Each structure stands twice: as C-alpha cells, then as structure tokens.
Amino acid sequence: MAVLAALTVLGLVLAGCGSIREQTQQVYDPADGTSADAGDIAVRNVVVVASENGDAATVFASFANRGADDRLVEVHVGESAATPPDGSLELPAGGYASLSPDSTRLDVGGGDIEPGQFVEIEFRFDQAPRVSVDALVKPADGLYEDALIAPRSTPSP
C-alpha cells in the first residue's frame, strides 16, 4: 500500500515538473512600450507621448545593437516622418542608444497622434531591416509630464 501511495505522489511531482518555463528567457514589456527586433538591433520600450490635441508628439525608444555599427536614419509615426536631430542616431556595435527628451529627442508633428490610441511606428536603419511596431500613445502627464516641447504658435498680427 505504501509503495502504491509513493508511486502516486512521485507521478504527481514529475507531472508538475514538465510545465516549468524559463520566464527569464522570454522578452516581455514591463513598462508601457512595445518591442521588436530589426536583425541584430533590439528595439525596446517604444512609446509615443502626445499633446491632448495631437499636434505635437515625442517618440521614446531604446536600442541595443548586437551586430556591427549601424544608424537609425528615419522614423515614421502614422503619416508623419522624422529624422534624428543630427541626421541619424549612431548605434555602435555591442552598444546602446535611446530616443528620449533626456538623450536624443525625436519630435513628430503635423499628424493626428492623440493619447489613448495605438499608432504604427516604423524604424528605418542604415544596415538593419526596417521594423514596425504598434505603440501606445500616452498623454504628456505623470511620468511623461515634461516630454513635449510646446508647439510653436504663429505670431498674431
């Protein structure tokens, strides 16, 4: 009887071991952003912060380059396109780079990019293939309160 009970318990223990998955081996987004891979370039935590009326937006993203030197040359957000301020963002081999108000700003305007929606963002690189993600558009408040540059107003006559 004891042997039968031990075999039953052993069977349950072994069955439970088969469903363990390595959580640390899977890419997931613990923050607001989305992620993708463009060849050897990992694009992580992509978020767009926009004004309430949608006339100004800033792109946030991080890049990790596992391959040779490359450059981010253009970003399309919905119907709008933008280039980094110096014409490109250097992505050194084995290095990191980011788009944020604290490092390299990438402001996008002229579109209807409003908080609460998802917008398609396409990243274009010099060497790596293009990659697109559907990113959440966040309002410029809380964590993102200082993310936007106030849109320029036209002088009144």
Account of the protein in words:
The chain has 157 residues and is mainly β. Helices cover 10% and strands 40% of the residues. It is built from one helix and ten strands. Strands 1, 2, 3, 4, 5, 6, 7, 8, 9 and 10 form a ten-stranded mixed beta sheet that branches. Strand 4 and strand 5 form a beta hairpin. The longest helix has 16 residues, at 2-17.
Summary keywords:
157 residues, mainly beta, 1 helix, 40% strand, elongated, disordered C terminus
Q: In brief, what are we looking at here?
A:
Helix content is 10%, strand content 40%. It contains 1 helix and 10 strands; from the N terminus they run αββββββββββ. Strands 1, 2, 3, 4, 5, 6, 7, 8, 9 and 10 form a 10-stranded mixed beta sheet that branches.
Number of strands: 10
Main sheet makeup: 10 strands, mixed
The best one-word shape is: elongated
Beta-strand percentage range: 35-45%
Q: What is the number of helices?
A: 1
Distance between the termini: 97 Å
Average the pLDDT over all residues and give the rounded result. Answer: 82
- Please mark out the parts with pLDDT under 50 across 5 or more consecutive residues, or reply none: 151-157
Radius of gyration: 22 Å
User: Based on helices, strands and strand pairing, what is the structural class?
Assistant: mainly beta
Helix-residue proportion:
10-25%
SSE arrangement, N to C: HEEEEEEEEEE
Task: List the SSEs and their pairings.
Blueprint: H1 2-17, E1 34-38, E2 41-50, E3 56-65, E4 70-77, E5 80-82, E6 89-91, E7 96-99, E8 107-109, E9 118-125, E10 131-139
Parallel strand pairs: 2-10
Antiparallel strand pairs: 1-2, 2-3, 3-7, 3-8, 4-5, 4-6, 4-9, 9-10
